[in-house]
Amino acid sequence: MTVIEAKVHRSSARNAKMAFILTAVIVGLLAAVVAASYWHPIVSLFVGALIGVPTGAVVWVLVRVWPVIRLLWWWSLETVLAVLLLTAWVQLANHTPTLVTLLVVALVVGVPAAIRPVRRQIKAWGWCLIVRHRLRVCFAQFIIANQSGSLPLILWAKPTPVGERVWVYLRPGLSAKDLEGRLDKIAVTCHASTVLIERASENNAAYLRFDIKRREVLTAHVGSPLVDVIDPTAPVSASPLTVPTALDLPDVDAPTITLPTQGKPAKKPATTANGSKPAASSSSVPDDDTSDWI
């Protein structure tokens, strides 16, 4: 069974080597410069080497075992719970008779299983542990990581009324846009209906929040406390629940609108070009005889 992939193993070896060289050289030179003010320069170089090499070795070990540390982080909660349960079982078995031990175990297991709120809380936190591993499977299987093969760091998870909420810190080479097109696959892997991704920090794009939804709570029937406020002895017509639901248009009297009559507008007198009114012509004055002009 492969615990650490070959790509990750080679990358950690290369990074550990570079970290050892850089740390040993930098720390050794700094220590030699400080020591040169007290001893001979040649002695200071030996002192710097004695300080830089062990410091570089410590850094090499930390970088080299980082994949193992990350793997332990993935299983940290399960490991702590297993250690606590095993320790409690050993202490109980060593200090109590067998019958008492079995009775205590039955109570510890049976009482939470019988009480529904406690059982639901235990189930919700159990799903949080499962979802953390399912997300890691998504990242390892079909989500592109960086060239060194380092996967996103799954930080914490807590239950919500509709599912779970998980905080994830992305490594270089991956962004939220790369994950938005794979939400349906993430939902299938987490045994959920839908998955939403949002930024958990306005200042850091690598810090994301996964909202995993596996049930719908808005469709539940919730009792209204307003029913208890209504007086049961009140008549139906006075009840605040009696509201008009329809309107019969024939029963509504349409208002009668009377429009004013429009008469023939009076003819305005014509004006001349200079704005003066022309002289009124009398009907008794005969028209000019144009035959004399010919």
- Please state the average pLDDT score: 79
Distance between the termini: 133 Å
The total of helices stands at 8
| Estimated radius of gyration | 45 Å
Helical percentage = 40-55%
Largest sheet: 4 strands, antiparallel
Shape: flat
Strand order of the largest sheet: 1-2-4-3
- H/E element order: HHHHHHEEHHEE
Which spans have pLDDT < 50 for at least 5 consecutive residues?
none
How would you characterize the overall build of this protein?
With 294 residues, the chain is α+β, with helices and mostly antiparallel strands. The protein is 47% helix and 10% strand. It contains 8 helices and 4 strands, in the order ααααααββααββ. The protein has helices spanning 6-36, 41-64, 66-74, 76-95, 98-114, 116-141, 176-180, 183-189, and strands spanning 153-160, 163-169, 194-199, 207-213. The protein has a 4-stranded antiparallel sheet. A hairpin with a 2-residue loop joins strand 1 (153-160) and strand 2 (163-169). Helix 1 packs antiparallel against helix 2. It starts with 5 loop residues before the first helix and ends in an 81-residue tail after the last strand.
